[in-house]
Design a protein that fits this description.
Radius of gyration: 21 Å
CATH architecture of the largest domain: 3-Layer(aba) Sandwich
CATH superfamily of the largest domain: Rhodanese-like domain
Helix content: 25-40%
Number of domains: 2
Largest sheet: 5 strands, parallel
Structural class: alpha/beta
Bound molecules: zinc ion
Length: 267
Amino acid sequence: MALFLALAKIVSKRFEKIDFKVEVSNKQAFTKLHVRTKAEIVHADLPNIKPWERTGIHLEPAEFKKMKDNEDVVVVDFRSNYEHSVGKFKNAVTLDIENFRDFPDKISELEKYKNKKIITYCTGGIKCEKASAYLLENGFENVYQLHGGIIKYGIEEGGEDFEGKCYVFDNRIVVDVNSVNPKVVSTCYVCGTVSDRMVNCANPVCNNHVPICEKCGWEMEGACTPACKTHPEKRQYDGTGYYQKNSNGYNPYIGLKRRKEEINSNN
Ligand SMILES: [Zn+2]
Ligand SMILES: [Zn+2]
């Protein structure tokens, strides 16, 4: 990653203002690298929102930490149900949404906070660029956003007062961000005991993202309901609850193996 950053700086001035998100992980979090042109980074269907022109005031993690508990502040989570159900900031307001593009329908629920300072947050700070811009567009005046999201707050401020785990969009499923005052807030979808073991239901048609405890995971073979357990397409449960997406047969290790063989035969 350090090499990549160094190269990016040398290659083009174009990357000067790019905010690269670097995080250390002790296991392989991504199977392959995609570089694509997208019309919209996180699909929200809001073509009139232009965060690069007007968006909520960016708060660095340290500033957020100082402000979040003030009387005149309301912290709002702009992530979906499956994300905030496994972890969120203490006292944060959540929205009942299955998908980010549904958030505009829920803005009326925030009307009662119009005279307060609203701080939006999400996983890495990207959704907030739009969500906070949308709030400004809809007459909210004091709008702030947590720059770099939960992840950067965890790295820089130890994640204080983030309760539960942070859902991420890679092989890790969830990560710990709070090393100051961690707390488990979610319960097993099957038996109701305290658990933050996030899995995808083994039935690919369901694919429910829910916490399921270790014991229920094995008993249910990774399924969220008895119906999912007996589903004919149910995937093999290996104890992780993560299932590799079909990547068109691409296997990054094949090329690596071939190169090693070439090197060995040349020696
Ligand atoms: Zn359980
Ligand atoms: Zn299921």
